[in-house]
Amino acid sequence: MRDAAGAEVLVIGAGLAGLSAAVALSGAGAKVALVERKPHVGGRAYSYEHPALAEVVDSQHVLLGCCTNLIDLCRQAGADRHIRWYDEITFLEPGGGSGAARRSEIGASFLPSPGHSSWSFLRASMLSVADKAVIAAGLLEFLRGYPESDDEAFSAWLKRTKQTEGAIRHFWEPVIVGALNDGFERCSTRYAGQVFHESFLKSAEGGRLGIPSQPLSEFYAAVAERAEQLGTAVHLRTSVDRIGRRADGMWEMVASDGAVFGAEQMVLALPFEQTARLLRTLPEESQQRQRILPAMEQFVHSPITTIHLWFDRVITELDHAALLDTRIQWMFNKSRIRRFEEGAGAGEGQYLELVISASFAELHRTREEVVGAAVEELARFFPGVREAMIVKSGVLKEARATFSVVPGLDRFRPAADAAGEGLYLAGDWTRTGWPSTMEGAVRSGRLAAEAVAKGAGGEGGFLSADLAATGLMRLLVR
Ligand SMILES: Cc1cc2nc3c(=O)[nH]c(=O)nc-3n(C[C@H](O)[C@H](O)[C@H](O)COP(=O)(O)OP(=O)(O)OC[C@H]3O[C@@H](n4cnc5c(N)ncnc54)[C@H](O)[C@@H]3O)c2cc1C
After folding, report:
1. What is the pLDDT of residues 341-357, one digit of tens each?
2. What CATH code is carried by the domain that includes residue 337?
3. Could you tell me the residue range of the domain that residue 322 belongs to?
4. pTM given for the model
5. Which has the closest alpha carbon to 303: 264, 338, 355, 256?
6. 423 shares its domain with 287
7. Has residue 138 been placed in a domain?
8. CA dihedral 150, 151, 155, 158 (to 10 degrees)
9. Do 135 and 193 share a domain, yes or no?
């Protein structure tokens, strides 16, 4: 039974964690109020109309086929039809002089897992034979799974498994820095191994790349509508200043406009620093402060910078590509991606978005410096950039884009019910077994919903099953 009927639940934060908790709990019959300080839902996965550019911009988010909970939530809301799926990823090496970039495609073939990508991998010109040999040997470590302990840094693993410089620069770095958004020292082997096991080895479906073709706030508005259809009361533009527990055991929150909401159970579906801020409004001796706050000092942020360029002409026919030997990890061709939406993407010219992960250096650079450097780098891949005119440009710096899965962090990630007494925790940073991703956030919301349901005498069961191993992996996966 997944019944939470009768429970009154306050969910604070309408990012993916809060939205997924609200959908799960309302679907199970609970009376839910969802409170969000911004005028839109989606949290960090948001878009907005940029006043100076007169364009709707977002930092492109991608998902993988193995993100089963996120995909299921999108399906429930009907948003899945706005996801474009790709079976291949194009890696580009810069061309010399005015030459075109060298291209390698990695994607699934007819071969059974774990070898489904091996055909394209063996043909990839971005890697030498020696690089491929050490990568294949390294991947064997993740064939059956990935380490349970997160104590080892991925930098140590690269050294231990004798990865070559080419293998690191053209394979491990684009994938890991792109997926975990930090340097190898600040990523544990556990999560790096998870990325490769789930998306590269276990099944072809797990590695499919999904890109929302709508601006993100539009895309996730459907999930909020789904929550409302199920009975959730959504309160936007309501910033919570403090929380507290009444003498009768009820939880309450006070918003900055003075509004007070009370409920038997409360879910904080916030980033870790906002969770800490609200926990500090509880009395010092409260068990929630004592249990949760000390661990939160272990969490650190990592930034992402995106550069948005509108050209007067077409620069590339690719929808997206991973760029090698540059600070830019990804190029998204927003004109082409958004063209999949009816009426969008028309017109001449082209809108490209460039993503710089772990962009600590860019945080301290001016808009002009960031755009100038990015355009110069982009021209090494697409020589047409040199002749093209940039009609307009923008830079989005997200200093607190993700938390880093630094080695040893897992023991500090609290479970949904760690605070106790009817206060629950959600958010990508909680104990989900996933790194800082939309899938991690959705899982956290569902885990919190499960804890609430159990507290009300139900059983939970809100999580989607992981993808099954296919091919030979069925015999190997532990
Ligand atoms: C630039 C960028 C690129 C990214 N790319 C990807 C990607 O490609 N793939 C991927 O899977 N993930 C990506 N991520 C990470 C992903 O966005 C997050 O992991 C995920 O969205 C976190 O969701 P959440 O619900 O845990 O937290 P949040 O999204 O931060 O949601 C928390 C919500 O709480 C609200 N809130 C905060 N304080 C209060 C308060 N006091 N009162 C009321 N409301 C409050 C906030 O406004 C917010 O809406 C990216 C993140 C960024 C920033």
Report:
1. 765 555 689 999 999 99
2. 3.90.660.10
3. 301-403
4. 0.97
5. 355
6. yes
7. yes
8. -70
9. yes
Same domain? For 162 and 237 the reply is no
**What is the residue-averaged pLDDT of the chain?**
94
**Domain count along the chain:** 3
Q: Give ligand 1 pocket residues (Cβ under 6 A).
A: 12-18, 35-38, 43-45, 59, 61-63, 239-240, 269-271, 274, 304, 398, 401-402, 427-428, 436-441
Element containing residue 14 per DSSP (H, E)? none
Does 463 reside within a domain? no
Is 359 within the bounds of a domain?
Answer: yes
d(CA 371, CA 393): 8
Mean pLDDT of 35-51: 96
Closest residue by Cα to residue 192 from 172, 170, 166? 172
Domain-embedded: residue 315 = yes
Sheet holding 240-245, edge to edge: 240-245, 251-255, 260-263
Q: Which of 34, 61, 355 maximizes ligand 1 atoms within 8 Å of its Cβ, making it the mutation to test the pocket?
A: 61
The pLDDT of residue 460 is above 60: yes
The residue ranges of DSSP E strands in 316-409, in sequence order, are 320-323, 330-333, 350-357, 390-403
* Kind plus residue range of the DSSP H or E element containing 138: helix 129-140
Residue 445, amino acid: G
Residues recorded for the chain: 478
Q: What is the DSSP letter of 341?
A: S
Compute the distance between CA of residue 23 and CA of residue 136 in angstroms, rounded to an integer. 42
Tell me, in angstroms, the distance from the centre of ligand 1 to residue 332's CA.
Answer: 20
Q: Name the residue at shortest CA distance from atom 2 of ligand 1.
A: 401
Considering only CA atoms, which residue is closest to atom 4 of ligand 1? 61
- Interatomic CA distance for residues 17 and 11, integer angstroms: 10
